[in-house]
Amino acid sequence: MEEWIFRVTAVALPAILAITLHEAAHGFVAWRLGDDTAYQLGRVTFNPLRHIDPFGTVLLPALMYFTTGFVFGWAKPVPVNFGRLNHPRRDMVWVALAGPGTNFVLALLSAILWGLVNPQHGMVEQWLRAAAEVSILVNVILMVFNLIPLPPLDGGRVAVGILPDVLAFPLARLERFGMPILLAAFFLLPMLGRQIGVDLNIMTWLMGPPVDAVIDLIQILTGNG
């Protein structure tokens, strides 16, 4: 039981913080740039409890971590009225980048903690080292995943904000199809590939190299390489 509690908390707590603080950052930056929609709803807070979706934030990430080693989840989306931003198209980019940027900072802080903790000093230190390792991985995966240039992901909003209209408008119209495309890439194609004996895990091909590169960068920046 103690080992189970150790493993679950070392995975769940960093994952919850990564997912919920990602959303909080969107709301905070939107508020600072002119849209108080999230603020009026009490969502401009770094209290994770205000952002947790019980299934998407807790159950699904834990289940996927223990069954596949991969983490996927979501918090309750922070509402942003892009039309109320001071400079809607430009500020949309900063609001979108706030989430992945927060994940990078959390991964960096977790790597610093990892380097400071000696797991031989006791159970608490062992837990901190394990939680820091999970936090680095989860935050980097969330950052890279959300920077995929497909709406409604943050990378898609960044692309819409910086691309010329001839490219931005067709990309923006893909938003309603974005999540079905991602779910198919995550689940349906790998399942189909297993049935026909072909590796169709597109998300691993797409995300693996940048995730490894970001983790290598963080190790260099924190002196843990």
From TrEMBL:
GO terms for biological process: proteolysis. The keyword Hydrolase applies. This is Site-2 protease family protein. Residues 128-184 form the Peptidase M50 domain. Keywords: Cell membrane, Hydrolase, Membrane, Metal-binding, Metalloprotease, Protease, Transmembrane, Transmembrane helix, Zinc. It is a multi-pass membrane protein. It is found in: Cell membrane. One of its GO terms (molecular function) is metal ion binding. The chain crosses the membrane at residues 55-74, 94-116, 128-148, 177-193. The lineage of its organism: Bacteria, Pseudomonadati, Pseudomonadota, Alphaproteobacteria, Rhodospirillales. GO terms for cellular component: plasma membrane. It holds the Pfam family Peptidase_M50. Its main location: membrane. InterPro entries: Metallopeptidase_M50B (IPR052348), Peptidase_M50 (IPR008915), Rip2-like (IPR044537).
